[in-house]
Amino acid sequence: MMNQAVFNLLGIAARARKVISGEELVVKEVRNGNAKLVLLANDASKNSGKKIQDKCTYYNVEYHVIGDRYDLGHATGKEARVALAITDKGFASKLSSLLNEK
């Protein structure tokens, strides 16, 4: 139930063009300071997961592991996605509050 609210809000953020998807693009957004929140699929490869988590930790960006690559892709209206970066502060804070309730 909680995940459904997260995925619904993620879809709205994607339609507002506030979501960046793809491992390399997410890492770039984190480095540039544009990413406010990062979502990582729980079935991401160890290398991808470690790279993104390390970047988020270093640049002090909140990240959460949620759903699988198909859930993240479906929520944003795309194919399978391993990582998503939220670039809007409002969407990021609302998603963060939903994810931290669990």
TrEMBL record:
<feature type="domain" description="Ribosomal protein eL8/eL30/eS12/Gadd45">
    <location>
        <begin position="5"/>
        <end position="95"/>
    </location>
</feature>
<keyword id="KW-0687">Ribonucleoprotein</keyword>
<dbReference type="Pfam" id="PF01248">
    <property type="entry name" value="Ribosomal_L7Ae"/>
</dbReference>
<protein>
    <submittedName>
        <fullName>YlxQ family RNA-binding protein</fullName>
    </submittedName>
</protein>
<keyword id="KW-0689">Ribosomal protein</keyword>
<dbReference type="InterPro" id="IPR029064">
    <property type="entry name" value="Ribosomal_eL30-like_sf"/>
</dbReference>
<dbReference type="InterPro" id="IPR039109">
    <property type="entry name" value="Ribosomal_eL30-like"/>
</dbReference>
<dbReference type="InterPro" id="IPR004038">
    <property type="entry name" value="Ribosomal_eL8/eL30/eS12/Gad45"/>
</dbReference>
